[in-house]
Structure formats: C-alpha cells, structure tokens
Design goal:
The complex is a heterodimer. By secondary structure, chain A is mainly alpha-helical. Chain A has a single domain, classed as MetI-like fold, CATH 1.10.3720. Chain A contains 10 helices and no strands. Chain B has a 6-stranded mixed sheet with strand order 6-7-8-3-9-10, sandwiched between helices. A 4-stranded antiparallel sheet of chain B has the order 2-1-4-5, with helices on one face. A 4-stranded antiparallel sheet of chain B has the order 12-13-11-14. Chain B is of the alpha/beta class. In chain B, helix 3 crosses helix 4 and helix 4 packs across helix 5. In chain B, a hairpin with a 2-residue loop joins strand 4 and strand 5. Classes of the chains: A mainly alpha, B alpha/beta. The interface between A and B is medium-sized, with 21 and 28 residues. Chain A: One of its GO terms (biological process) is D-methionine transmembrane transport. Chain A: One of its GO terms (cellular component) is plasma membrane. Chain A: It is found in: Cell membrane.
Amino acid sequence: METLLANLLPNVDWPEIWQASLDTLSMLGGSLLFTVLLGLPLGVLLFLTGPRQMFEQKGFYALLSLLVNVLRSVPFVILLIVMIPFTVIITGTSLGVAGAIPPLVVGATPFFARLVETALREVDRGIIEATQAMGASTRQIITNALLPEALPGIFAAVTVTAITLVSYTAMSGLIGGGGLGDLAVRYGYQRYQPDVMVVTVVLLLVLVQVLQSVGDKLVVHFSRK
Amino acid sequence: MINFHQVHKAYRVAGQDIPALQPTDLHIARGEVFGIIGHSGAGKSTLLRLINRLEEPSGGRMQIDGEDVTALDASGLRRFRQQVGMIFQHFNLLSSKTVADNVALPLKLAGELSRRELEQRVAELLTRVGLSDHANKYPAQLSGGQKQRVGIARALATRPKILLCDEATSALDPQTTASVLQLLAEINRELNLTIVLITHEMDVIRRVCDRVAVMDAGVIVEQGTVAEVFLHPQHATTKRFVLEAEQIDENELHDDFAHVQGRILRLTFQGEATYAPLLGTVARETGVDYSILAGRIDRIKDTPYGQLTLALSGGDLDAALARFEAADVHLEVLR
C-alpha cells in the first residue's frame, strides 16, 4: 500500500501535506471567527439603518454601503499586499497563519455583512411590528426576534463565507501564508508536480464538502417553517 | 378609556404630505368592543396603530386610561405598550419559537416574573385559548385558527387593559372566524377588556361589537351602536357595507316594487319585540292584508332583530299604521 502510494504520488511529502492542512484549518477557523464577530454587528447595522427600516439613516447607510462595496471590489490578491503594513501592526508579522488572518478577515467581513443584511431583510416585518407592540426595546427586538428568526439565513451566510475563505487561503501563499492552496501553487504549478496539486485539491474539495454539508444541516435544524 | 382629540396623520411620500387620517375625535369606553370598518386605504389601520403609537401622530392629543400617550418618552412608551395587547391578520408569530415560547415572549421582555411564575402564566394562557396540548409545537405545525389563538394568548400575557385586533379574522375561513370571534367575546366579558378591532367585514362587527365607526378616505363618516348603524345606515359607505353583509345585490335595491299594490313600509324590530306576534295581531284587528316583500331575522351580538318590508292592502290602513307606530318597532313608510 505504502509503496503503491509512493509510486503513484512520488513527490508528495505527507508530513508537509499534514502541516499545510493544519495551517489551512487554523487560517480558516481564525479568520471565520473574526469575520463573524465583526461582520454580524456590521450586517445588523446595515440592516437597521437601511431603507425603510427601524433606524433609517440615508447618509450613514450610503457611507457604510460604499465602504463595504469598496472593500468587496478590491481583488483579494491586491488586498493581501496592501494589508501587509497593517497586518504587521496587528499581529507583529505578515507571514504564516497569523499574517494571513487579518487580510482574510478584511476580505470576508464586508461579504459576510452583506449576507447577514440580506438574511435579516427576509424576516417578516410583521414579526418586528408585533415585538415592538409588546414594548420591546431595540436591543430586545434584535436579540429576541430578529436574530432568532434570521438564524437559518445567518448559518447559510456563515457556510458560504467559510467556503469563500477556503479559496482565499489558497491565495495567501503569495505573502507566505502557507496552507494547502499555497502547496498546490508552489509544488503543483511552479515545480510542475501534478501529484501534489491533485492531493491538495482533493483535500480542499473534501473540506468544502464537509463545510457545505455541516452548514446545510445547521440551516435545516434551525428552520421551523 | 381611549380618547382622541383632533388626532391626525399624514405620511410624507416624495416630499409631499399624503393624509391618511383627517383630524379625528374618538371616544371608546372601558370594557366595550369597538369596531372600525372600512375598505382598504380608508385609514382604519392607521387609526388602530396610533393607539399604541406604532404610527406616530402628526398632531392632536391621545389620552388612554387617563395617560397622555402623545407625551410619552421611549421608555414610557415601552411600559405603556405592555398594557396594550395586539393581534394581527397574519398572526406574526415567531417561527423560530415554540407556542409556549411565543406566549412567554412578552413576559420575558417585561422581565417581571420569575421563571416559575412565567411558566405557570403561560400554561394558564394556553389552557384559556384551548391549546395546552400544543405548547411544544412550532407555529408552522398549527392551523390558521390555532395560530390566531396563540396570538391571542400572547397578546393577553401581560394582562393588558386594551386589545387591538388588526383584521384578526381576515385570513381565516368562516367557521374558524366564528370560533375566534367567540373567544374574543368571552375574553371581553371575563376580563372586562376593552377591544378595538378593525375589519372590512360587517359580519365581524355584527357578531362581537358594541359600537362601530365607519371610515372612508381618512374620515369617520358614521358611528354609533351597531344596531343603530346596522339597521339605519345613513352614509353611502355604511349602506354598501350593510348590503354586502346581507348579501343583497345592489341592483335589487332599485326594485321599487312598482308592480305591488298598496302601501309599502319597512318595520325594524329589536330585542324581545322580534318575537312578538305583531303582524298577525294587527292584520286581525284592522282587517288589512299583508305580504312580505323582503326580510331578515338575525342577531346583532346577543340582541335579536328583524327587518321586514311589507305591502299592506285592504282594511283600515290608517289604523294599522297607528298600531305599528304604537308598537315597539321602528316604522318607515316607503310608499
């Protein structure tokens, strides 16, 4: 078995693949955590100040919306490089897993915030009105009605964002971020070792599949409609 | 209980004020079931939402239970809203929460009860609306009528003094409508709860309301006791609603009974008089013959009423008319 694998995949260095997998997972985990922590409030803010909502603020919403759109239109490869000085300030390094997380978070947060805004807009306005009629404060409306009702949509948003982050991590190799995607580019593409590329791509595919099916399960679990 | 003084509301659309409610005075007494009827866009929904300030008035003063509601600040308004329950056409239950959690929500928001008191109160409310067996179901698993019962239980959770009903039966079939209206009538009696409901169906008004206001184009065009308004409608809008309720084709109304001989009159009976054998007695005593051209005998809330259109001929007509005048009925001579 081992010789078969060695013959079939002569260039694959398994300990290195293992390390790269761990790097990808920690980049994904770390960046997803901060993306959700920052993106969820941003999405709620976008929703609340948006057109015909509870705290409609035309000017503020337009500004926030513009900022989000600017960040979303910068190609991630460019964001990676532009972010380097800021990354050094935040994490002390621009290399490795720690160096990759800040640009990943900045790249994914606006995207996630938009998805959260859309999920919140799907909540029936009547439910918000009913909660207001009970005498709920804005904070109570958000925590007791809006977020629970939008939970399936928010889980769907987290799933899509996580998968987008997986493909972003592949690009972080450009700034020395490491991970499976980096391995695929360096060995598979630059050194022309297709066996390494195939192995890494298969592992990424498995990761995406797992993320999608776990996400779908959570969405179904929290849907009561 | 509810007093509106020159309250009005305009929406600002594209830089222009669109009036939704003209300056309106409204007085609703404690413990009464007050109906507001109108077609869509008549302003009834705006009027209802002004009561708990889901709509902010453009001007005027609103006094509810002795409190100047127009002057309340944000926290005062939240406290006030806990004393006003509301139910909705589309129920507006939280799909992510169970029946019990939906009913518990207003109590949780108010935050005054301990966990055990809260559970006890929820159980009590679900028993009251007949849904104890469904406590752990989600709204999607319930029928429309059951959802509205959950809505009612939720609205009553904080022991409000007023219940606002926004087209609460419009999404329900006739049988379910009847049972929900019956529940509202029971609650009104048991808790001496003031109920304000809006609807576009005269039948809803007839079944549960004590008094009614008819709205058209942001104005209350007619109001009074349901019997008054229902049996002697004055305004064109009211007349249309009454015809709709009686399922009379408007064309039939133009039938002036030209081919019918004799005098034509309309008698309106209310209460016990409905069951008195008046027609036969008068016919025997005065020798007139009568034929019934149109008629209806029914109930307004708990009061029976009858309205008959008669043709009289032969005998002593004047004596017959005098007898009707003297009796406990409302007489209109049509011809």
